[in-house]
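Q: Hi! First time asking for a complex rather than a single chain. Here are the components, and I think there are two in total. Is that enough to go on?
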Amino acid sequence: MMPVVPSSRLRWLALAAAVVGVVLTTATVETAVRPHRLVYQLHTLDNGLTVILSEDHSTPIVHLQLVYRVGSKNERAGRTGFAHLFEHMMFKGSRNVSSDSHLTLISRVGGDGNAFTTEDETVFLETVPAQYLPLVLWLEADRMATLRIDETTFEAERQVVKEERRWRYEDSPFGLLSEILYDKAYAVHPYKHTPIGSMEDLEAASVEDVQGFFDTYYVPENATLVLVGDFESAEALALVKKYFDRVPKAQHPVPRDIRREPPQTGERKITITEDQNWPLPTVIVAHHITYDGHPDAYPLHIAAKLLSDGQSSRIYRRLVYDDQLAVSAFGAGNIIEDPNLFYAVSIVQPGRRPEESAAALIGEFDRLKTELISDKELERAKNQFARDYVFGRATVEQKANLLSHAAVIHDDITTADAEFDIFMNITKEDVRRVARTYFTEENRMVLTILPPASAGRSFLRPGGDQ
Amino acid sequence: MRRLTAIVVLALAGVAPSAAPQTSDWPQESPPAPLPAREATFPSYEIRTLANGLQVVVVVHDEQPAVNLRLMIGAGAAADPDGKGGVAALAGQLLDQGTTSRTASEIAETIDTIGGLLSVGAGTDLSFVNVLVMTDSFELGIDLVADIARHPSFASVEIERQRQQVLSGLQVSYEDPAYLAGVVFGRMVYGDHPYGMPHNGTPTSVLGITQDDLRAFHQTYYAPNNAQLGIVGDIDAEAAFEAAERLFGDWERKTLPPPPSAELPEPTSRVVVIDKPGSVQTAIRVGQVGLPRASPDFLAFDVAIKILGGEGGNRLGSVLRTERSLTYAASADMASRRFAGDFMAKTDTRSDATAEALRLTVEEVARLRRERVSRFELQNAQAYLAGSFPLTLETPNAIASQVLESLLYGLDLADLPKYPERINAVTVDDIQRVTSRYLQPQRLSIVLVGEAAAFVDDLPGVGFDNVEVLSLDELDLSSADLRRSSAGSGVLRAPRLAP
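A: Yes, that's all I need. Here is the structure of the assembled complex.
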């Protein structure tokens, strides 16, 4: 166990200065209200579990978040969707908890429990009245150490996940947008598939896969436990140790062998037709970008604000308001652990052509390369960031999200607060530089997804020329 | 964005037999005892009523340097004029698209430049303006709320722009099984009562809305004596009330029209299938008329419905998901509004399991009335509802929502801090009494949206002989029988629009 005092200096901040030439001063930005800093302790148990404790006595509740650093990008070929399917199995019982009673035990004390799986992480969370902290720690330790795995419950849960895929993605308008986009954009990196995976692979998964995944990834050294709420840290730490010290250390190091995506070398233009649940033509302009924590990531976030935050943003103003090319249009970077995409989407207004949307979106990306943004736009984006920072830490769950993200994805908990100054020091030139780096023609994909020719009740298709 | 593709597991309850653990020396033990309880009290707030009738609620909360302003107008889609479905929604949507002194672009520039958030719109019983600003922009924020609510311009060019957005949005919605199931269910339960009409109207009704309709709606219902203003966050209470008086004090009181008098139809057994070929699932919705929010039986009936399909209970989830793996989610909920309410059980299942999932759902509704709930089930539901009270007090917004909702529905504010005790006072007899009184399992409204060919032949086998199957082209939401009267003039065919 090693208490760590958060350092005020970040390794990647130094990197940012070196690479970008940013001058880091104690600059304070007058226009933005500063969010309050998070106060926390960081510990590591002997078995490798990372523990973050942050007291917040404003309401008598506590939030627990247990993040396993495994997501859909850790899935092997032929097993897409497995990390998420496994997440479901974590509710099917352990030595002292019978199948499906985990959430009952939590709701019975007035708490809420949940879990989700992303490309990079699998997260289990509970918010309970403060006095039930021992219960949630005990529940999480029990399943980390002794998950019960059997054929019957696995088969039952497989069917539930298939229903989830049908409901959330297959029968929902535009529900398969991400799946199509990532499949087209990636060649080899596992971001090529989304966390829900394919029906075929869900069907192929076996109970042996479940045991292997559990033994490999659900180990203390691959997990980060965050507690935020109404507790005394010393007492909470003692409870954490009581329940988690007895979880055995991993037998083997956690594998981190993710295939790298080769650079894209030429513009790609793809048009496809979707047979189901595609009410309107859709244009996506996507570029490969960098990873979360890279110095370029911050100006890219600013670019996303300029393009898409609020009705005065460039994409909304041009495509939705002025030219009325789109019913809805937006753009943002999916800036996560490995290099992902920055993409803009236009749901094409009936009577308008997809080509107009594609040209307008590309035009907006190009403008970021050719013109410096205005001082006013930069100030606006920074104020919007300050707002996101302030409102992104209103609840114990949000605070835990920030801490776990900094600790797990950045591998540096100090970023939870320190990114604020990075954003406030971004310049117009930074934004132009990253636009020129990533929003290039050879790094671009223009994907058009059309409804079936027969689709559409004509009531809203004024042009009727699709 | 980093959780763009997050997948969430819904809360479900259930118990299965134990099996062998993998860590042999792991102790066998019961869940640990709780720590000493920490008291949760409803935070303080203050309400004052201006001379013109505007109720102002202030909740001071300085944890974050921001203020949230929420103006609620007590009229929404339920106040749409006959045949003008969508007026309240379109009026709400146009609030931030220009006032007599600011253009739409100026409003957008103003709020975005200060890093604020602005949202406007309308629900069933209310219309709203919400503004979120950093503490140092409070004055600008409240000025914006007042201007938007009091002086919208409803300019023709903005009306056409937003009309097109609504129509395009409907085009998407008409391919969304969840939307279709919801609006068809509303028509079946409420008949011609205003609560049964789709909020955004239908393509035909939206095309018929004029500038005069919008202005008349605003003139009639947007009034201080029909509104509440919440000021929540890092601000001095006196300064908040002073600003409210300054910005809203000269807003003229109006004589409000009487509430809708339309009668609710008697529940009748009816099964409607909306055929959506190519669907891989069927959206199943089952329910009937429930209770208005202010009913003295609301709390007991709400607990009953939670046992059927809510947190802390959820028989539907246990049967349909845990036991049978027929769905990802099954739940039941109340929609209790000012003048009436409904309850609805919902689930979505693969097409070929539709009849079986429907049978199980209807059986659980019937069982809720037929059998007394067990004390254990009631205690679990109460434990969740009463126990989660502290979780509902975390943010100033959550606190303000509870106060504003009480004002909107005319509830007793003194009940807010007593919620846990009131929940715990509900008895098995109370549940029995309200389910006997309000549940009529032989007269349910049932909607199935999916590929009809995959399941209609199975429906008689589970007790549903009389089934109406409609294609999307035959569906007319403006008609109580849901069916277009003649080909070619239906709601889904409308004149061409200039984009």
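A: The CA atoms of residues 226 and 404 of chain A lie 7 Å apart. Let me know if you'd like any chain examined more closely.
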